[in-house]
Fold these 2 entries.
Entry 1:
Amino acid sequence: MYQQLLKPLLFRLDAEAAHHLGLGALSLLEGSPGLARALRGPDDPAHATTVFGLTFPNRIGLAAGLDKNAEAMVGLFALGFGFVEVGTVTPRPQPGNDRPRLFRVPEHGALLNRMGFNNLGAHAMASRLSELEWRPGPIGVNLGKNKDTPNERAHDDYALGARLLAGLCDYLVVNLSSPNTPGLRALQEPEALRRILQATRAEAGARPVLLKIAPDLEDEAVDAAVEVAVAEGAAGLIATNTTVKRPFIHPEAGGLSGRPLLQRSTEVLARVRGRLPTIGVGGVFGPDDVQLKLKAGASLVQIYSGLIYQGPRLVKELVSATGPTPRPPPR
Ligand SMILES: Cc1cc2nc3c(=O)[nH]c(=O)nc-3n(C[C@H](O)[C@H](O)[C@H](O)COP(=O)(O)O)c2cc1C
């Protein structure tokens, strides 16, 4: 139904209008966890896994940026996701960049965005999370800094986000890799990164803290960031965010996601292999892509652009494609 009916209609709309329509439809399930549970159906225990000390009903999750304000978590879990990451959330609400700021590039299976952390702020997210009635899998909160917070004070924003939200979610993500907040990615440099991870972990209590990295870092910079993440007690990594590189000519600025990101995001994933448990994300559109991520070392896999192009049935298709989670041999 999505490919034949809904997608042609949605793709006729402006990309951000279609986004709000889709998310709005999913959010209708917020008050109906019973119906959502029925739509999800039973989880197959063979797909369950434990990562970062958390139990996941399956290894396919929603990447950050689709549900920035935690408005549609019940509907998203109804689709079959094993975990949902909400945000990026900043301490104070902010409008993001001027529209248009989200573009489709269908001939490349890609999206291009320069949203700029538009969100309702950490207090609004805290109230949404505290009202949530049904959590069939872990919820991650992806933290960012406000645009008008200078980089020297960035650690305060991450610490505040962690203080307000750690108790309401299962893991936190330090996002320093979005290309649409000026200067943000410079904070992946070791000294700044150390300070931000320390400040976040100090407020996170027992919650695992993950670092989301950019695909545009040089390999040596990836290694350096991972060293700091290990030294500062991060529980895991997310590889990767969107890229500012363009494998084709396009007039719009912003971060590119979808098929063109598959290769580089998987290279980064393979590079960090064995250092910390990692969520692989970037360009997953079908079962083969999931296998590629798992083979490259992913413990879990997230999707965003694939969901827009392939539709909601993709989630269960990918869950089945992961097969049973490998178990350590019995002793
Ligand atoms: C419209 C849009 C908004 C996004 N917003 C965020 C965000 O707020 N925080 C973040 O960490 N990643 C954000 N992302 C990046 C995704 O989480 C993901 O890392 C990236 O899109 C690669 O996955 P994909 O190829 O499956 O889309 C966004 C991506 C898109 C397309």
Note: The pocket of flavin mononucleotide is lined by residues 63-65, 68, 88, 102, 111, 113, 115, 142, 175, 178, 212, 241-242, 257-258, 261, 281-284, 303-306 (CB under 6 Å).
Entry 2:
Amino acid sequence: MNLKSIYPPHGIRIYWGPMLRIRFHGRGGQGVKTSSRILGRAAFLAGFLAQDSPIYGAERRGAPVVAFTRISDSVILERGFIFNPHIVVVMDESLIGDWLARPLEGLLRGGVALINTAQAGAPLEVSDSHVVVRLNITDEALKIIGRPVISAPAAASAAKITGLIRKKQVLEATVEELTELGLAEETVEKNLRLVSEVYDMTPHHSIKINEEPSRSLEVVDLRSDRVVFSDILEVGNAYLRKTGNWRVFTPVVDYGRCTGCMVCYVYCPDSAVKLDPDKKPVIDYENCKGCLICVLECPMRAITFVREAKAYA
Ligand code: SF4
Ligand code: SF4
């Protein structure tokens, strides 16, 4: 069985195995789960069978989230985690340095790493082992919808990379998924513009996927005597998890406007806003995860934000 590429012989030709596996990595609030759903639905509209599912722990804005999409032209019996994807979609580049998330792990030889990044660099980099596609999807989202939610455009970009799904199918899937989520018509319209733009700006290249994993699977022995529970059972220990490395946007207080009302202190879900002796807010950047709730809640509009660009290897 072969999945047929939509591209003519002179265009992109991607030779997948019998099943195409895509793994999405992002942060709570970026739309990771919805992205995998839009891609799955678009594949379905393109005539394939598809399966999508997310994995996340506590629903927490900024926390690493993983989602999976499988695409095939026959019944998909495989379930669970995708250890060896053909494509990884890294919706937040700071995850690349996160030793727990490890988004590039297991990428098949010849596979594609699609990275949403603010860093300069060639949009397409091809090596013997992998293809890297770099796009600044977040900036496009900020320009068009005014928020860094990139579910639909990330799906659009991944769809183009598969070589199996046309733009109109991603657009249709976007309307269906976002309408099901109850988004306003105007927001859906903006997402369609964004999808169209990001689909077009996604570069393509002829690649051949080797079905062999680039790393062997590791079997983890979960013997209970190796598990350390003490940190989990202690109360009031959230500060020990330095969630500052989750941050994509950094809140910045303008003390000229700040009245010291303490609203940001009350609303910060991670207690990352401290008060100085004059009761003015001081952000603890080691623990601020960049959810920007303080920006939304500040009645004086005294907190703005800047995008962080974190280096990755
Ligand atoms: S909510 Fe705004 S005005 Fe109030 S303390 Fe925080 S920064 Fe200052
Ligand atoms: S300081 Fe602001 S951006 Fe940082 S975690 Fe608290 S509410 Fe979120």
Note: The pocket of iron/sulfur cluster (ligand 1) is lined by residues 253, 258-264, 281, 298, 300, 302-303 (CB under 6 Å).
